[in-house]
Amino acid sequence: MDKKNCKILFMGTASFAVPALQTLVENGYNIVAVVTMPDKPMGRGHKLQAGPVKQYAAEIGLEILQPVNLSDEAFLDRIKTLNPDLGIVVAFRMLPRVVWSMPPMGTINLHGSLLPRYRGAAPINWAVIRGDRTTGVTTFRLRHEIDTGEVLLQESVDILPTDTTGTLHDRMMMVGAELLCRTVDGLLDGSLQGIPQEDMGIEPTSAPKIFPETGIVDWSQSATDIHNLIRGLAPTPGARSELAIGEREPIWLKIWEAEVIPNEKPSTTDISAGTVLVNDKHLDVICGTDILRLLTIQPMGKKAMPTAAYLNGLR
Questions:
Q1: Handedness of CA 12, 13, 15, 16 (dihedral sign)
Q2: Cβ contact 140:151 at 8 Å
Q3: What Cα–Cα distance (Å) separates residue 69 from each residue in 39, 72, 93, 179, 256?
Q4: Max Cα–Cα distance, the chain, nearest Å
Q5: Contact (Cβ atoms closer than 8 angstroms) between residue 92 and residue 112
Q6: Nearest Cα to 154, choosing from 134, 170, 125, 169?
Q7: Contact 3, 29 (CB under 8 A)
Q8: Residue 214 and residue 268: Cα distance in Å, rounded?
Q9: Which residues of the chain carry a pLDDT beneath 70?
Q10: Predicted local confidence at residue 269, as pLDDT
Q11: Inter-CA distances, 18 with 24, 54, 145, 201, 296, Å
Q12: Helix 52-60 × helix 18-26 angle, to 10°
């Protein structure tokens, strides 16, 4: 079967999925419909807003399905009528078996890690938080247990010391789009065989969902670990801490950018973790190991700003 005759049902919502869908469309693959999440109320006016995948699909005139319940009979009947040969999932929700098993060629997923590492909802965040130097993208066959199906193709991506989850996400989604096309080609010409994750000799790790409390800083950790947490939670939801600056009452700050300063001064080695050292331009926080210099911060209810600007405002 060639790519023009292979009917593909694409399922995705978030921005990570848009380059994958766009690359498939622009390379002549036959997308019969797009399944995406219902529009959500956004902003102060709570106006309904379409997700990135829906916005792109609408621009190019693809059929869009937005079921609230993926087991809804009307939705399942529509899929049966479309009669897709292959399902593709990118940045979507967990599918019921009745959906992912319906296409004769099965359903494949593009995941933001080198499986079986970082199975779960937030693989890019956790790779940065844990200080990894390399991650990647994986295509694999869906099965019932999340992110456990046979691996089809993988591509590594370096994690730069300056990367945040945001910058890494943007590089990975482009690499993933190209990998997805190669995967579909391999399935269509029969050259691609899956590898069970159990046979890869790699210990699985998890990447659970990120919650606001994930970002609360524990200053007893090393400055490097806290720096990685800040990078891994940018641009959202952000790392935060309650800090006492000078003689003022403690306030909550989000920390968007920082750098590690080796603690080479004997006079600071006995100061308790979480203590803030203030000078004209810098806020330095004592950590379990070394010192973290806060470069960009955001007081609650205000905009993010350079630390020097914040200190000028205090004066």
A1: negative
A2: yes
A3: 14, 5, 11, 30, 37
A4: 74
A5: no
A6: 134
A7: yes
A8: 28
A9: 265-269, 315
A10: 61
A11: 10, 9, 25, 32, 30
A12: 20
> Contact at 8 Å (CB) between 114 and 136?
yes
Residue matched to tokens 């991506």: 157
**251 contacts: CB under 8 Å, gap ≥ 6:** 242, 243, 245, 299, 300
One-letter-per-residue 3-state SS of 53-88: HHHHHHHHCCCEECCCCCCCHHHHHHHHHHCCCEEE
pLDDT digits (tens, 9 = 90+) for 123-174: 999 999 999 999 999 999 999 899 999 999 999 999 999 999 999 999 999 9
- Give the global pTM: 0.94
Task: Report d(CA 265, CA 263) in Å as an integer.
Answer: 6
Residue 278 burial (10 A CB sphere; 0-12, 13-18, 19+): middle
Tokens of 141: 């066959």
C-alpha span between 160 and 136 (Å, rounded): 13
Of the candidates 242, 244, 243, 218, the residue with the CA atom closest to the CA atom of residue 229: 218
**Axis-axis angle for helices 165-189, 18-26 (nearest 10):** 40
What is the strand order of the sheet 151-158 is part of? 64-65, 30-35, 7-12, 86-90, 107-111, 134-141, 151-158
CA–CA separation, 42 and 221 (whole Å): 36
The helix, strand and coil proportions of the chain, stated in percent and rounded to the nearest 5, come to 30, 25, 45
Decide if 284 contacts 261 (C-beta within 8 A): yes
Q: Which amino acid appears at position 108 of this protein?
A: I
Contacts of 78 (CB under 8 A, 6+ apart): 33, 65
| CB proximity list for 302: less than 8 A, separation 6 or greater | none
For 255-267, what is each residue's pLDDT tens digit?
Answer: 999 999 998 766 5
